[in-house]
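Researcher: I'd like a structural prediction for the single chain below. Treat it as a standalone chain; there are no partners to consider.
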Amino acid sequence: MTDVSRSNIYVDTLVSPSYTTAVAQVAQLPGISGKENNVILFEFPRDHPEELGDIIENYRLVASSGFDVCILGSSDRDYGYRREIHIWIAPEDYENASLMILLAYVILGHPDWKHGEIKLFAYFPHEQIDDERDRLLSLIRAGRLPISANNVEVIPASPGIPRREMIRQRSRDADLVIIGFVGEALQHKKQELFAGYDGVGNILWVNTMKEIRIHADEEGDHAAPEALESEEPMEKIEAVVDADSDRSTDEGPSDLATRTNDASPDDSGRGGAPQGDADRR
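Model: Treating it as a single chain, here is the predicted structure.
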């Protein structure tokens, strides 16, 4: 797998009697680099949303372990031409924003994405647009959001047009869309949270347990890579759970793999693409 994907990743497989026990085992795995695992990545096919049931059911288990949670909704389009990554943030997504942007940088570090670029869309209510724009730009200047202001577009919410409809219109041709979510919304809306994105390619939903703090460099234009969560080096260990459509909730083996990404944003024209990789199984 590593040869085919051209990725420097560590792959391992666990066989467990149920989805829940598999997730519990992954949550207890030690990191291969001496650091604890801190991100878990689930995947489900968007044309089979019923497979979300296991992910939603086990979200609290993962969250209680302190893991950041990413949920990849894959489509038949896969990653297209690997040219554009669209990030959508809203007022409730500020805690997720840094991780969303950093994951986009990690992905751009992969050779298949060498011609890719990041675009960030900030979607705010019309009456809050000026205040939120100032707030967003101040976070960028402070290095809290590691992206150039030139790659950011602030969009006022239109009455009667929900955000997911705007995403469908603006990101229909994007090769990957990254959206934040909060745990309370997942528990309340469940599968509905992931519905309504017809026509959009692969979507990565991101939820962080605590805001990732990033220090600005001396010039204040880019994020310094050496500080991530209590000034530890950015090293994300991801656990991928593939849920087969014919597997029941309570029994049947679950195949899991863990992989590590080492990211270091630089000052390149794309806003800094780290030398790391974030391939999907």
